[in-house]
Amino acid sequence: MGNKPIETEEEVDRNSFDFISVIGKGGFGKVWKVRYKKNFQEFAMKEMSKALVIEKNCLSSILYERDLLSNFRHPFIINMIFSFQDNDNLYLVMNLVTGGDMRYQLTKNHTFPENQSKFLIACLVLGIEAIHANDIIHRDIKPENLVLDSKGYLKITDFGIAKKKDNQNLSENSGTPGYMAPEVMNYQNHSFTADYYAIGIICYELMMGVRPYTGENKNVIKEKILAKQVMIKAHEIPNGWSKEAADFINNLIQRKPTSRLGCKGINQIKQHSWFEDINWKDLYNMKIEAPFIPLEEDNYDVEYCNKEDVIDSSMREKLEKIKSSNEYINGFKNYTYFNFFEQSNLIKEFINPHKIYEETNKEIIKPINNENLNDINTQNHKKIKIPELSPECRELIKYNLFGTNISKLN
């Protein structure tokens, strides 16, 4: 699935980066802010313990996430640049966004005004649209997985439990309880509308400051959902919010998927009256000024991120034993990936076979076709083959792509 890993003349590994600070923590390790030594560009790097991945029985989901990320290129999805590994860890290098996640911002602000919320939800809708276009259900849309860039645009991250759409997924019950659709909780077949339900829950939270269904565990939340369909009544709409916003939310958090906004396709969501003033094309091209700009500071919990996790002796012993298992030794093959074209400011498209123009409108790159892509997407080439670049383009990008001199690559 997606683009095959690309080998380069110079391997990328942990030593290719300067580690600046810890900016997050996950179930398998830390998320670092790093600087690529070749060109001083900054990225986010997820560092994951191989032994912990296996101990938690998450090998397949980790590999699947990497495959998914290699297939996505979208302004409202966190894009992967590299993936590689060493004896102990997996490394996932992605776009760095510095505005913090929505949960962090909600904790600081409690609620968001309607204009800010609408902008963020519209970004989320476009990101979800791209995911669904690839026949994928994200299944874990929640504030912690929605991050803001420095300009206030929202991006979707964490595809750890995403799945290919399947008409028979009764056994699938993954997700975060507060944002999990009722049909998922009840082990029923579910589709894209499960993600739309999560959008409604998030929008409700942005408006009301709390989720419509809360509880200490999945069963408590499930009982509350089954007991009552929550609806925002006219007198409950906070000052500064419109009845169109309430209608949008009420139609997304419907318990029955067939009654939910979006059941006839995502355009049903985009065409809702709440989005009447949204220019979707301008939003996609990031031409709209965001109403909320994150402060230029550490937009994450510094104390939490720097707190070291304590692993007891019995767990350490268990993790050491895992390292001698066949799954540990052979389970992470083909994890390495290098998105060569992501970093070129001149090459705007990689997948679409059409002409690409520099800002001056001078044609410098010939059309990329499927035959050319076959030369690029291969694990067997020792050197990268560039697709039909004109001499002008070669000169312009010779030293642009991660410090690699492409004149040596032929």
Outline the structure in words.
- The chain has 410 residues and is α+β, with helices and mostly antiparallel strands.
- The protein has 3 domains: 138 residues, Phosphorylase Kinase, domain 1, CATH 3.30.200; 183 residues, Orthogonal Bundle (Transferase(Phosphotransferase), domain 1), CATH 1.10.510.10; 63 residues, no CATH class.
- It has a 6-stranded antiparallel sheet. A two-stranded antiparallel ribbon has the order 6-9.
- A hairpin with a 5-residue loop joins strand 7 and strand 8.
- Helix 6 runs antiparallel to helix 8.
- It is globular and about 60 Å long.
- The relative contact order is 0.14.
- The N terminus and C terminus are likely disordered.
The total of helices stands at 15
* CATH architectural arrangement of the largest domain: Orthogonal Bundle
Q: Please give the largest β-sheet.
A: 6 strands, antiparallel
Do you know the CATH topology of the largest domain? Transferase(Phosphotransferase), domain 1
Main-sheet strand order equals 1-2-3-5-4-10
